Amino acid sequence: MSLSRRSVLATTAAAATAAALAPLATATTAHAAPTLPNGTSKDKVLVVGMDGLRHDVIAAADAPHLTSMMANGTYGTSLLYANPMAATSSGPGWSTISTGVWPDKHGVRENSFAGKNYAKYPGFLARLAQVRPQLSTYAAVDWKPLDAQGTVTPGADAKLVLDGDRDGYTGHDATIAAETEAILRNQNPDVLFVYFGQTDIAGHNSGAASAAYRQAIAVQDGYLGRLLAAIKARPSYATERWTVIVTTDHGHTDSGGHGGSAIEERRTFVLAQGPGIAAGARPADTRLVDVAATVFKQLGIVPDPAWGLDGKPIQERSTDPFEALHPALTARVDETGIPAGVLGWTHTAPSGWSVVNSAMGTGGVTEWRGWTFATDEFWSRSQRDQSRELNVRSRGIFAVADSDEWDDKASSGPYDSTLVTPAYPVGGKSTVTLGLTTLYRQEGSQSARILASWNGGTPVEVKRYTSDVISQPQSLTLDVPSGAANVSFRFHYTGSNNWYWVIDGVKVTTS
User: Fold this and answer.
1) Rounded to two decimals, what is the model's pTM?
2) Looking at the domain 321-510, which fold is it?
């Protein structure tokens, strides 16, 4: 949240504890819910945002409703970016959730909102107002910038905007819960976004390892329970198709605070239950940008490619060949800074793929000797603040060649490794297109080349990277030579304690 809130933390802490125990009606006796237009859709979505909620603390809190949603829905955890892409702060986090794109598109990198690009990448409520204006929509927030900056509330038919920084979040969270409950019970909304902020205040005041933080989670879990009960109490509930999504904008350190690159600050999650969303699923390829895409999916809206969304619906799995490697992931060997319980790397290639290390030097850090298949948590833990946190468009497991980390242990000779794809049929086709996502950092004499081999012949260079590419989709279309029946691609990386090259989302198509 905003840095300005730090000045109110101490003055609201004592009041927060007492107010948390007060009935919802106490905080809402003077407030009447607005009248929304009558809804038009049987497909309905409630998005609940809980600020600064560390998902790995939920199990230790009294949170039966979140726990029930995990059992009855799909629960995907992931990590945020860090600077220089954006701080692990609320401005970038909620912008990512609302717009469905990463900070390099929506432009919000910290809580001043300087550089925001909501005109091109609006929030999902604003987008719904453009493409489905007949929907009845509502938003409630008590961190005012989410309204004042245009992050969440534009497009809503009605909104409740309170000032938690000025007045304290405990009472205002209760007001939001009560008003949303009343709207769900007594009116016919189609899409709602509601925000609760006290978890973040508790994190700042007491740290994510504190009883106060767990209590704040319990209170907000109670609010979630009231909203779920209100949905089920609707007279028309049996004929409606409700999706409920819970998410957060960033994590917290154990001692309290966020904005930096620690794993605890980068923790986020998307939890959803509803039609077509699997019960009990724990996907490894979910990202924070998936909230908006899930909203559209559940409403039957197919996003226009021109929207440039980075997200995908939470129920859709990546078809990347590297995702099959989860059973092969193992714990650290030489990487002392990664907890032993984190299973996140393997040298086992997917079926049909191979890694050629015949020109590779000896020694070095075992995990990074040649192309490695790794998860975001394992790889980015290997060394903070060297832009590994910017690998945002990779999902689940990706391939990485990292000469920098390999050289952290005594080695001899160059880093020289080649990742080889299977042979893809191209007979009778005029062109073949290689699609992938890349994070590449250039330094010194290192090289990163893509080569094509037709019919198993001598590989020919078709692309060379000579400058940074910060987690972007790539597309390379080649003419199919006469007589070519198949093609395989090679990703050849060399370095000498330089940086790294990440490959993910490999897809080959023909036309």
Assistant:
1) 0.93
2) Jelly Rolls (2.60.120)
